[in-house]
């Protein structure tokens, strides 16, 4: 069962520092762009992942094609993808042993969540950190980009 309690969500958001945002967009009106900018403003390092934009710069960060291309380990993978496209990304997160897989609002993959949890990863599903951070009073990341 994905992690959904306020206490567990708050614990995740206060412990992570680096996020791979899969489905990052260079279109400023897209939710993934807005959430990336918000998380950066809160002090998180957000590495954008989008094969169509790989090699480009997005909000000061280089975009990577996939999780396997990332130059460093991340604490969380945030998925801004259609649910049917999340399976391969969840499998990559398992292989890379990323501690947290976070599926954005509307992104629900029960089978992928079970598989990730069975591999020891924490899964959050159908939630948005941009909504949870202020609601739960999560402080800005210390030692981050602020």
Q: In CATH terms, what is the fold-level topology? A: Rossmann fold
Main CATH class:
Alpha Beta
The number of strands is 7
Summarize the helix and strand pattern as letters. Answer: HEHEEEEHEHEH
The assigned structural class equals alpha/beta
Taking the alpha carbons of the first and last residues, their distance comes to 34 Å
Q: Average pLDDT across residues?
A: 95
Number of domains: 1
Brief summary of the model shown:
The chain has one domain (6-136): NAD(P)-binding Rossmann-like Domain (Rossmann fold).
Task: Give a written overview of the molecule.
This is CoA-binding domain-containing protein. This protein has 146 residues and is of the alpha/beta class. It has a single domain, classed as Rossmann fold, CATH 3.40.50.720. It is built from 5 helices and 7 strands; from the N terminus they run αβαββββαβαβα. The strands form 2 sheets. The protein has a 5-stranded parallel β-sheet with strand order 2-1-5-6-7, sandwiched between helices. Strands 3-4 form a two-stranded antiparallel sheet.
């Amino acid at each position: 069962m994905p992690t959904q309690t306020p206490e567990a969500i708050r614990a995740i958001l206060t412990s992570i520092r680096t996020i791979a945002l899969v489905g990052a967009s260079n279109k400023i009106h897209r939710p993934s762009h807005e959430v990336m900018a918000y998380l950066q403003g809160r002090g998180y390092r957000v590495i954008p992942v989008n094969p169509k934009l790989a090699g480009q710069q997005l909000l000061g960060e280089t975009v990577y094609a996939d999780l396997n291309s990332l130059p460093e380990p991340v604490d969380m993978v945030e998925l801004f993808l259609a649910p049917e496209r999340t399976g391969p990304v969840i499998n990559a997160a398992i292989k890379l042993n990323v501690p947290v897989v976070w599926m954005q609002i509307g992104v629900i993959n029960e089978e992928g969540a079970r598989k990730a949890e069975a591999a020891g990863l924490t899964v959050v599903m159908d939630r948005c950190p941009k909504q949870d951070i202020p609601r739960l009073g999560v402080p800005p990341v210390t030692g981050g980009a602020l």
